[in-house]
């Protein structure tokens, strides 16, 4: 299954063209393919495929199944695309603010957006403690349990918010999990009142999160930043103080994106 690549310019890199073709092939084979299978389907030399696939794997664009010796696309490509489709300069404008928040509390500070009826981490600044939570880009999170999910949904247009909430399954993880729409709407009302949201270990035991929404220039909540840390360090009695601080930092990102309340 060789593929002819159009040469619109005299300047091209054959191995790069092969790498892109391999990525396209794997996009239609979610089960993954071996080096030999890729070589056969594309009629590329096996040694060349091995080098290209190894490079893509080393850069986390591919994941490997050690049992079956196959390779498939990782979430990294998705996160690269999500960043391109997100509000221009969101990550760039957020990182300095996220580092400032991280430096103050020493806890991990992620940045996330909505992705259907779930949320997705698109960037993070890791905490400074030896023990810290790591939320790598591409990781999805539930909207009904997470601080960023509540932060974004609380400030969405009612019609758009209701469409998303109607798709939430409200899976229960522990006794603190919000388990129905009525309780969730009540929680979102409280978020709108305070300006920040919390996750009191509602999914992961011992993990506290405090978040606030980011608005684009049209005034739409489309992203959130939050602090994630163990309950032994991020105490419930400090939620309000930290929440107002997270909101202040999130507001500064919104302003840098052209939002004026």
From TrEMBL:
BP terms from Gene Ontology: negative regulation of DNA-templated transcription
Keywords assigned by UniProt, alphabetized: DNA-binding, Transcription, Transcription regulation
Keyword DNA-binding set for record: yes
Domain IclR-ED: 76-259
Domain HTH iclR-type: 13-75
Matching SMART domains: HTH_ICLR
Pfam families, alphabetized: HTH_IclR, IclR_C
Keyword flag Amino-acid biosynthesis: no
Protein name from the UniProt record: Transcriptional regulator, IclR family
Lineage, broadest ranks: unclassified sequences, metagenomes, ecological metagenomes
